[in-house]
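Q: What would this chain look like folded?
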Amino acid sequence: MPIRGPAARSIIAALIAVAALGFALPKSALAQPVADFYRGKQLKVIIRAAPGGNYDLYLRLLARHIVRHIPGNPTAVPMNMPGGGGLTSLNYFDKVAPHDGTALTMVTQTQPMDQALGLDKSNIDMRALNWIGNMSDENLFLLTAARPPPKRSRMRSSARQRSPPPAPVAAR
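A: My prediction, written as structure tokens:
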């Protein structure tokens, strides 16, 4: 099933960003020690959803292509861990998976904000994770406007007073 529309553009943009990052790094200084580390290793790609969903497709696509840009050419191994809205995979990533650069996962965009607001149930310090990118170009935000309540006229007239429109909600 081909991916089309905004999802395809997001995936292509993310892949271009990963490729650009690979070209921007000083190859001679970093390539050999990194290549020695990753040679013959597996990159565990921990997927927070069941097979077939958006997160599964995004991470499998990333796994297929990111290993081409890691010196030493590790093998990507996708691991689906659905449950708890992604908390199962996030807890596995934090508590069980190796912390040496051989594990990769994707969290929801709201996870860091939930933690900052005290709504997070994972007990994982999101600031301690190494963030390498974003597979989506969506930056959702909410706009509100403080307006006084509309004034009502006691006079009856044929012209109807209009109240101001509701506060706008904007995405992107």
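The CA atoms of residues 28 and 34 lie 11 Å apart.
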